[in-house]
Amino acid sequence: MSIETTPVDLASMADERAAGFGLEAPFYTSPEIYEQDLDLIFGQHWIFAVAEAEIPDPGDYVTVDLGPHSVIVVRDDDENVRAFRNVCRHRGSRLLESGCGSIGNIVCPYHQWTYRVDGSLIFAESQADTFEYDKFGLKPVNVRAVGGLVFLCLADEPPADFDEVSQLIEPYLKPYDLASAKIAHQTDIVEEGNWKLVMENNRECHHCDASHPELLTAYFPISRYEAEDVPPRQQQIFERYLEAQAELEKAREAIGFPNGDICQLEGKATGFQISHLPLDGAGASFGPDGQQLCAKLMGSIEDPRFGDLSLHMQPNSWFHFLGDHAVVFSVIPLAVDRTLVRTTWLVNPDAVEGVDYSVESLTSVWRATNDQDRVLVEGTQRGVTDPGYVPGPYSEVEGEVDAFVTWYVQRIQANA
């Protein structure tokens, strides 16, 4: 005898979420909610996929898997960024199995249907004379390159506010010339936790002083605090931060860099936040005491003491842009309790490994931080799975976590 189960009413559960509190356990543990996340969040919104630097030349490609969807991101012969479904139009074979590479044409391994990198079909064996090649090109996926960062949207009608967001972000990214940068290193780690826990963990530094000693050699743990919120034990750090912030403002003014942070993390389909924060110590990079890690600076940046331009994009990415390099992060759900975190380090295209930088030094802080975050996320996943879990209230310094969860709830309500 089969046992009937009651379908999850995700919209009703979202409506019942208490403002200022975390989510109920099923949001992190239910396979059914996970599948709806893939559909309603990752299937309906702009998702960060790759840095343009990962596909520098015509024919270079990266494949991106989002649940059951596989997408080819490729640079065509005119050097435009394209995206297509990784599915042959003949009998559905997966076209490209590798995560990245370079090709002249896209050739199906099954029956050798062949496509140009602009998606057009150019060879299909043993078809009738009436066969119309132009009707069987690869299915395109919405793709946008913004300041050297490539975003995808699987929906037929993607959120229209992305144009507005792009216009706001691009002036901040332009001086770094990310599209011309080169990849210094890339790592993938799998965290045994729900994708939302990964994002929530990233959206606050309340845990940083206890969990991220390497990061704190250069990164202020109280950058989001108001003066009245600073714990007494961190008062001296906060005063040092205010001095560094004043120096950063002078550096911005000297080169005409955009001034002012933008926070639109909730209330719209494409939520984001961009802020420019000083670094501690030397103020140049994530080296010991804020020391510079790459001798050649990014793009048109002239002063290595240019702090950390931080960009958060809902629902799956965050970025750190420094005077001497950039670090970009993407989060891809693999299962209800497994999440891929990909980290990519970018440097000036003329920087020479072993001369201008070392991969070990460049990546040391964030490799350690990623591993520490992995432990925190996995512990939280075990906790929310426990029958004793009850959502608690966010602290006064966890506003960005609350904003992420609020955005998620709003998007569920809008799309369910």
From TrEMBL:
<keyword id="KW-0223">Dioxygenase</keyword>
<dbReference type="InterPro" id="IPR001663">
    <property type="entry name" value="Rng_hydr_dOase-A"/>
</dbReference>
<dbReference type="Pfam" id="PF00355">
    <property type="entry name" value="Rieske"/>
</dbReference>
<feature type="domain" description="Rieske">
    <location>
        <begin position="47"/>
        <end position="152"/>
    </location>
</feature>
<keyword id="KW-0001">2Fe-2S</keyword>
<dbReference type="GO" id="GO:0004497">
    <property type="term" value="F:monooxygenase activity"/>
</dbReference>
<dbReference type="GO" id="GO:0005506">
    <property type="term" value="F:iron ion binding"/>
</dbReference>
<dbReference type="InterPro" id="IPR017941">
    <property type="entry name" value="Rieske_2Fe-2S"/>
</dbReference>
<dbReference type="InterPro" id="IPR015879">
    <property type="entry name" value="Ring_hydroxy_dOase_asu_C_dom"/>
</dbReference>
<dbReference type="GO" id="GO:0016705">
    <property type="term" value="F:oxidoreductase activity, acting on paired donors, with incorporation or reduction of molecular oxygen"/>
</dbReference>
<dbReference type="GO" id="GO:0051537">
    <property type="term" value="F:2 iron, 2 sulfur cluster binding"/>
</dbReference>
<dbReference type="Pfam" id="PF00848">
    <property type="entry name" value="Ring_hydroxyl_A"/>
</dbReference>
<protein>
    <submittedName>
        <fullName>Aromatic ring-hydroxylating dioxygenase subunit alpha</fullName>
    </submittedName>
</protein>
<keyword id="KW-0560">Oxidoreductase</keyword>
<dbReference type="InterPro" id="IPR036922">
    <property type="entry name" value="Rieske_2Fe-2S_sf"/>
</dbReference>
<keyword id="KW-0479">Metal-binding</keyword>
<keyword id="KW-0411">Iron-sulfur</keyword>
<keyword id="KW-0408">Iron</keyword>
<dbReference type="GO" id="GO:0051213">
    <property type="term" value="F:dioxygenase activity"/>
</dbReference>
